[in-house]
Design a protein that fits this description.
Elements (H helix, E strand, L loop, with lengths): L2 H26 L5 H22 L1 H4 L5 H28 L8 H22 L2
Helix pairs in contact: 1-2, 1-4, 2-4, 4-5
Length: about 120
């Protein structure tokens, strides 16, 4: 994967975050309780935040190896799918077992951020 493809993924995930945020604010607000709406909003927030990170990856392409960019991008995309995706599914279905997946997404996010920090630190020397 190139940094530009990962940025494309960020654009797609960012657009989906806007659509899912609007869906939650308009279509789901009438059928979900306040706690479920907060969970939905948390999922949208993390998806939007990590989409932005993917969008700026081409700016780091000259500072990081292609392998480091790929690993970072993969962990962020995986984290988004596991973290936000599991929360969306939990809210829509009410099935608690989906929320058990959420921490794995958080771990993927953390792994990605650590990988990015280490890669940029190594590139600075």
């Amino acid at each position: 994967m190139s940094a530009y493809f990962l940025a494309f993924c960020g654009a797609v995930l960012g657009g989906l975050a806007v659509a899912l945020g609007a869906f939650g604010a308009h279509a789901l607000k009438a059928v979900l309780d306040e706690d479920a709406i907060k969970i939905w909003e948390k999922a949208v927030f993390y998806q939007a935040l990590h989409s932005m990170v993917l969008l700026v990856l081409p700016g780091y392409a000259m500072m990081m190896s292609p392998q480091d960019i790929n690993i970072f991008g993969f962990t962020i995309i995986l984290g988004t799918l596991l973290f936000s995706g599991s929360l969306y599914l939990f809210v829509v279905t009410g099935k608690k077992y989906f929320s058990a997946i959420t921490p794995m997404g958080g771990i993927a996010f953390l792994a990605g951020w650590v990988w990015l920090a280490v890669s940029l630190f190594e590139a600075s020397f």
